[in-house]
């Protein structure tokens, strides 16, 4: 055990428990502590997993524990102060998204962790989904030619009734709203596959059930090289049973339509080297996925956490989703808010 990395989890709600079940399967990890404000959660841990130290305050956890890494799974408004405290203790950090609630904080953490050479990663899990990785590989290798246009979408049934406005989800200052909670995934997927846009325009934010934040988001992304694309997000769409990311990319030689579960690619010419015919081709997640040691919710959830640990063990390994990558996503989010404010003056 002395050779294992010591890890703690701050925030033991749905995502904290999910990440615990995954990371606990890693042979090079030992989970030594958990911090949460729920006495029920902590009492259950004390009763059934006695070797884990429990805290109600993340400051006490970081002050008292000798740690290599932490997973931050709290509501978004706490991500920045926890990550900052971890930085002061020289602890590697995996944070759920959005890893801060404003661009200044995001840039501050990205700079600090890079300069200290601490491993830092954000839970934009689509970067580890095998379908989207295949899409990125196809585009990188010119399978559909030059990108001309794209569309990135995400839909969920997160908010399906009128909100009273008294939860963090209905407060932008606390990290609530469809942009931070849902659209950030669709934006990050654009940054990862196509690249960060040079300009955001035509932004609209629509309230459906929420009183203080947006439930639906639309925006247009423009690039200096002539590429353009649209963002379309709605977290109040009851026609979707589970959160669904979709991306459509139109190129000079064909187009790709993909979600987390599979992709369809239309080509003007066959590509025997890729086993792709002229016309429509279909690839399911089972055709392209890489096996993982432990499955919860999807291979990508295990892949991202194992990748985080791999980057700590092998410091020469390049991280697929750093704080700087997440800061790029924050820049686009800030651009949407700014553009919407300008539009609202008309």
Radius of gyration (CA) equals: 21 Å
Gross CATH architecture of the largest domain: 2-Layer Sandwich
Q: Work out the helix count.
A: 10
What's the CATH class of the largest domain, please? Answer: Alpha Beta
Main sheet specs: 8 strands, mixed
Strand content: 15-25%
End-to-end distance: 63 Å
Describe the protein.
The chain folds into 2 domains: 5-123 and 301-321, NAD(P)-binding Rossmann-like Domain (Rossmann fold); 126-293 and 328-343, 2-Layer Sandwich (Dihydrodipicolinate Reductase, domain 2). It has 10 helices and 14 strands. An 8-stranded mixed beta sheet has the order 8-9-10-7-11-12-13-14. It has a 6-stranded parallel beta sheet with strand order 3-2-1-4-5-6, sandwiched between helices. It is an alpha/beta fold and 346 residues long. Helices cover 34% and strands 24% of the residues. The chain is globular. The protein has helices at 14-23, 39-48, 58-64, 79-88, 103-116, 130-140, 178-193, 285-288, 299-313, 323-343; strands at 5-10, 29-35, 53-55, 69-72, 92-95, 120-122, 147-155, 199-206, 216-222, 228-234, 244-251, 254-259, 262-267, 279-284. The model has no long low-confidence stretch (mean pLDDT 95).
């Amino acid at each position: 055990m002395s050779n294992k990395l010591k890890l703690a989890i701050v925030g033991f709600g749905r995502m904290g428990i999910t990440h615990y079940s995954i990371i606990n399967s890693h042979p090079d990890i030992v989970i030594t502590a958990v911090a949460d404000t729920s006495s029920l959660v902590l009492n259950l841990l004390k009763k059934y997993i006695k070797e884990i130290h429990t805290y109600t305050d993340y400051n006490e956890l970081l002050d008292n524990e000798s740690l290599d890494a932490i997973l931050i799974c709290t509501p978004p408004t706490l991500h920045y102060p926890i990550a900052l405290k971890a930085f002061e203790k020289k602890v590697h950090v995996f944070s759920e998204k959005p890893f801060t609630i404003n661009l200044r904080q995001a840039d501050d953490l990205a700079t600090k962790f890079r300069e200290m050479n601490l491993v830092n990663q954000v839970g934009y899990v689509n970067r580890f989904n095998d379908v989207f990785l295949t899409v990125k590989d196809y585009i990188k290798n010119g399978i559909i030619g030059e990108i001309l246009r794209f569309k990135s979408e995400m839909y969920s049934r997160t908010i399906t009734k009128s909100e009273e406005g008294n939860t963090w989800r209905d407060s932008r200052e606390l990290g609530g709203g469809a942009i931070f909670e849902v659209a950030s995934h669709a934006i990050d997927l654009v940054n990862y596959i196509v690249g960060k846009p040079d300009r955001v325009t035509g932004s609209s934010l629509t309230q459906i059930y929420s009183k203080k934040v947006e439930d639906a988001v639309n925006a247009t992304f423009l690039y200096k090289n002539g590429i353009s694309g649209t963002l379309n997000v709605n977290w109040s769409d009851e026609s979707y049973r589970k959160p669904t990311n979709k991306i459509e990319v139109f190129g000079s030689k064909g187009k790709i339509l993909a979600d987390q579960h599979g992709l369809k690619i239309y080509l003007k010419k066959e590509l025997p080297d890729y086993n792709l015919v002229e016309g429509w081709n279909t690839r399911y997640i089972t055709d392209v996925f890489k096996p993982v040691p432990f499955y919860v919710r999807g291979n990508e959830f295990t892949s991202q956490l194992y990748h985080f640990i791999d980057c700590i063990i092998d410091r020469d390994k390049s991280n697929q989703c750093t704080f700087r990558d997440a800061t790029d996503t924050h820049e686009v989010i800030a651009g949407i808010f700014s553009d919407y404010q300008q539009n609202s003056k008309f």
